[in-house]
Hints:
The structure is a homodimer.
Chain A: E1 2-5, H1 13-21, H2 24-36, E2 41-45, H3 53-67, E3 72-75, H4 79-88, E4 97-101, H5 109-117, E5 120-124, H6 135-152, E6 159-162, H7 172-186, E7 194-198, H8 211-224, E8 229-232, H9 237-249
Helix pairs in contact in A: 1-2, 2-3, 3-4, 4-5, 6-7, 8-9
Amino acid sequence: MIIIGEKISIIAKKVREAMNSRDPKPIQELAEAQWKAGAHFIDVNIGPAEEKGGELMTWMVESIQKTVQAPLCLDTTNAAALEAGLKAHNNAWGRPLINSTSNEPDRFIMLELAAKYNALCIALTLGKGSLPADAEERCGIAAEIMGRAAEYGVPMEDLYLDPLILQVCTMQDQAQHAIKAVKMFQELNDPPMKTVVGLSNISNGVPKDMRSLIDRVYLTLLMYEGLTAAIANPLDKELMDVVKTTEVFMGKTLYAHSYLEM
Amino acid sequence: MIIIGEKISIIAKKVREAMNSRDPKPIQELAEAQWKAGAHFIDVNIGPAEEKGGELMTWMVESIQKTVQAPLCLDTTNAAALEAGLKAHNNAWGRPLINSTSNEPDRFIMLELAAKYNALCIALTLGKGSLPADAEERCGIAAEIMGRAAEYGVPMEDLYLDPLILQVCTMQDQAQHAIKAVKMFQELNDPPMKTVVGLSNISNGVPKDMRSLIDRVYLTLLMYEGLTAAIANPLDKELMDVVKTTEVFMGKTLYAHSYLEM
């Protein structure tokens, strides 16, 4: 199970302030803490970053990779900023992951950048206006994106299909559709397509003290259906313990009394 | 999801002492606490009870049902004690559940008692010496028990098939076989067969502080495959919260911010 650490995000006040003042320390600390907690990628969410996006992403990538030997997940809708991040990224520590392309025309360029920089790419199964109604619709969108990826020269094994997790508190039935989509996505190719979710979307809007519980039960179900990766909070020890325990039940980790410490 | 409260068991020293001295209070307190925590049945495990088993089970059933208006799960290998319990049981509070028949000849009598007293019956898919190797073997045993139940006049809807949960720390691959068995059992009849597990068996032998985590992740997976009931600890609030959350994801509970309090 691949964990993409979600904590370096413009949504967090501390991170936003550090970005604005170009103070690397809070960002580097978050990167290091997530890396030590078992994250495989560090997400770098700078938002739309319409002004000086390229310079900001370059500074972020360099600041973080100075501290941790981790590949990054570059998270912005600004293609120019994304390209700057790809140029700055140290691929000796793993290939970068683009977050994200989708079926919306302004996101097609992300596939072009993935091909150009040999990057991995998240593909959000969203497009053409409305939210996908069910797993089948998500598969239809995934197939369109896969066809486009092939045209751009992005190999299928470099795509991570994202079913678009919606909040359970207002769209409860979508939780099941997304689990089913994770299962169905894998069948769209041989070898199976890889899958990813933005986990914490599921608990958006629920009381704060219930969020971790909801996230970790949902992640167990997604993993059971074969999920490859999750953008999640590796500093949530209970979540990470549940990930490790689910891997034991799926036979991906050999049981040892110390498996939680691995 | 039906929870069968497991706390009144001869394995617990406090319970054993209360049984021996015929002190109802500790037993009644445990019954009440489990009932209030959401148990649907209270398990009454008196062990083999070779001496005065009938008198003990009668006393247990009467003591518990004086305090809580709950149906009981009568748990002993002693058929005479079990029959005494069935006679004493107050069916106005629900039908009793026999724990358990199996494919071992000395357990066939439990089906006879189920038919005679209109009781529900757990059927452990165990028999003929060795442990079942996989889900398919469990299904074969289940089919034999189902055939026998029909001969004895026990309706299929009154049987709860139990895949026999084994400890993950020494028989890790059995954890997956048992999940698969829960899924396959349901397909043995239409309407689907009901299923039950003795949950805490999964974490037998693991460090004590990891048991609840292991139990609750495993229960989530079993529930996802359609488990009907679990013999478990309803006083483990984290476990009960996971049960409720899994039911939200399966669409069995409508989400409300207060669903954990229901």
